[in-house]
Amino acid sequence: MRQSQLLPLGGLLLFSLIPSQLGTICEVSQENYSCLTLLPLLNTMINSKYSREIQAANVLLSLRLVGIQDQSLERHLVQEVKKNEEKKALNLTSGQLALVTLALGACQNSDETITHLHLVSKLEKKFQEEIENMVIHDGNPLTNYYQLSLDVLALCLFNGNYSVTEVNEYFIPENKNFYFGGHFSVDTGAMAVLALTCVKRRIINGQIKASEMDLKHITNYTESLVKKILSEKKENGLIGNIFSTGEAMQALFVSSNYYNQTEWNCQETLHTVLREISQGSFRMPTAAAQVLPALFGKTYLDAYNSSSCGSGSFNISIQEPLPIEPNSSSSWISVNYTVKINETYFTNVTVENGSFFLDVMKRAQEINETVFRFTYVESSWGPYITSVQGLEANNNERTYWELLSDGKPLSQGVGSYVVQNGENLEVRWSKY
Ligand code: B12
Ligand SMILES: *[C@@H]1O[C@H](CO)[C@@H](O)[C@H](O)[C@H]1NC(C)=O
Ligand SMILES: *[C@@H]1O[C@H](CO)[C@@H](O)[C@H](O)[C@H]1NC(C)=O
Ligand SMILES: *[C@@H]1O[C@H](CO)[C@@H](O)[C@H](O)[C@H]1NC(C)=O
Ligand SMILES: *[C@@H]1O[C@H](CO)[C@@H](O)[C@H](O)[C@H]1NC(C)=O
Ligand SMILES: *[C@@H]1O[C@H](CO)[C@@H](O)[C@H](O)[C@H]1NC(C)=O
Ligand SMILES: *[C@@H]1O[C@H](CO)[C@@H](O)[C@H](O)[C@H]1NC(C)=O
Ligand SMILES: *[C@@H]1O[C@H](CO)[C@@H](O)[C@H](O)[C@H]1NC(C)=O
Ligand SMILES: *[C@@H]1O[C@H](CO)[C@@H](O)[C@H](O)[C@H]1NC(C)=O
Ligand SMILES: *[C@@H]1O[C@H](CO)[C@@H](O)[C@H](O)[C@H]1NC(C)=O
Ligand SMILES: *[C@@H]1O[C@H](CO)[C@@H](O)[C@H](O)[C@H]1NC(C)=O
Ligand SMILES: *[C@@H]1O[C@H](CO)[C@@H](O)[C@H](O)[C@H]1NC(C)=O
Ligand SMILES: *[C@@H]1O[C@H](CO)[C@@H](O)[C@H](O)[C@H]1NC(C)=O
Q1: H or E element in which residue 61 lies
Q2: Which of 64, 140, 245, 323 has the fewest CB atoms within 10 Å, i.e. the most exposed one?
Q3: Which CATH number fits domain 332-431: 3.40.50.10490, 3.40.228.10, 2.60.120.40, 2.170.130.30?
């Protein structure tokens, strides 16, 4: 556990929301937002235990972009990566490696660590493996396009080798990998816009060679993706859902040439995000890390230039988290839990009030192991369900275990979704 500590915070919080080169798309009057608004976010990030290095990478990247130094986190992350190297078991996925690279390289004046660990050349290889997998498996990458976008972004920012022609071949906005279950993935589109914008800037600055045609394509793709992102804007200003909005904002910051100012009210989006922060929507470190940069007008593209990252100018006090009070007057609730493959299996499960979806699954497994057994892996968003009844999710076939309540897909995982009495919960064998 950490002591309460003082952290120098970058810039005047929220007062200078948008760096000058981004135009005036999101000016927010200062008087209404105090630092207090952001304290829960920072607390979540700084106090997280970083059980997974990839969570630490998300947090480190985000803190560096807004100008908060956290030396113990940096040491921890570098150690994790080095440990992996020594064991020769660097089993990071391409996007995880890209995130580690972005985090370690962000806002530094030299990229010593990156060079020393040969991160960029490893990432080049991982990116090629993604493409080879697509060739063999009907266009399906080893991971997903969110990660391929992270790959291109990190390679672009840190001078890795990648082929612009390949990028153009695979990042067509109509590519199925931009969609899950037929719906455009705002997170994925936003990350792709950031990556394509980086590549475009490099071409224009003459840092990499590309044909006129390549440049035209990149421009066309960016414009289409931005349109798709904006078409996912909700009445309250959120873009996609609450968890994609921060990254969508980043994409819109760097692409203001591609839409009309009247098409996006940045302030409205920001208000809603700040309200959600105060309501505790960002309790997961990864969620907090993904939304923070946009609140400071920062984007992942700022990572390569230390002078566009925030720099400490005033102090903020980070508190130890309050221990969660156990509810002594515990009561019980029951839910209808269903596993659906081709057949439907269901049972009435009784759990304590306040339980998570995962608790329901564990209880059901006790009731009937054959039907309700399952496995999961820890990811940066918490436990991810990988198999039920021994049937395993598979990226090559685009299969996964979908979570639903009363027939509607959940926007949280089994480790954070709190179940309600009488709810119809379901895990469904699905294709994305
Ligand atoms: C790709 C993706 C998927 C793919 C994953 C398989 C694949 N081909 O890679 C598919 C479409 C299957 C998927 C499923 C789900 N997803 Co998803 N997914 C993403 C996305 C776009 C990128 C993840 C990624 O690669 N990150 C980068 C790498 C470097 O980090 P990583 O931790 O190693 O990534 C792994 C985990 O993120 C994991 N994963 C993906 N989704 C989810 C969701 C949860 C809750 C968990 C614990 C893990 C997890 O898969 C990644 C690859 O292995 C993110 C967007 C985002 N902003 O992160 C949403 C996102 C993480 N998913 C989300 C959700 C809600 C889900 C589902 C719960 C939806 C549902 N109703 O069923 C399910 C997971 C159910 C389960 N089995 O546990 C939310 C999580 C929000 C939250 N607060 O928890 C996000 C943020 C999207 C959003 N804006 O709402 N997802
Ligand atoms: C700021 O707060 C004042 C009063 O507290 C309110 O009248 C005003 O609408 C708020 N402005 C914004 C931009 O939220
Ligand atoms: C790492 O990946 C390789 C090949 O993909 C696999 O053979 C090995 O078992 C993995 N190691 C760990 C520790 O998961
Ligand atoms: C760069 O990558 C391309 C393919 O993406 C490859 O053909 C080329 O040889 C690589 N160049 C160097 C210098 O590694
Ligand atoms: C991009 O190009 C395609 C095909 O040439 C065209 O149909 C589409 O309208 C273009 N998109 C934009 C946003 O210009
Ligand atoms: C932007 O929107 C305004 C008002 O709707 C309109 O007059 C203008 O022509 C639009 N500009 C572009 C470039 O679409
Ligand atoms: C870095 O950012 C600063 C300030 O935003 C800018 O003046 C400078 O030109 C940038 N440097 C590079 C290499 O882009
Ligand atoms: C922030 O804290 C440091 C160390 O406690 C102190 O030296 C510095 O003057 C403080 N800065 C501001 C702006 O309060
Ligand atoms: C504790 O549980 C009771 C009974 O379910 C509930 O009414 C109450 O709101 C809970 N208190 C807290 C702090 O969660
Ligand atoms: C529980 O769910 C199953 C299907 O998922 C349904 O057939 C059954 O009627 C439900 N039971 C109750 C009590 O709602
Ligand atoms: C579901 O049923 C279809 C059609 O009968 C069959 O092809 C498929 O293999 C079944 N899926 C599973 C997971 O059992
Ligand atoms: C589920 O079980 C609980 C406790 O045994 C019981 O109170 C409840 O009525 C049951 N619900 C259904 C729909 O059978
Ligand atoms: C588990 O469920 C299956 C299918 O409903 C049933 O055949 C089996 O007897 C059940 N096992 C136990 C231990 O209840």
Answers
A1: helix 53-66
A2: 323
A3: 2.170.130.30
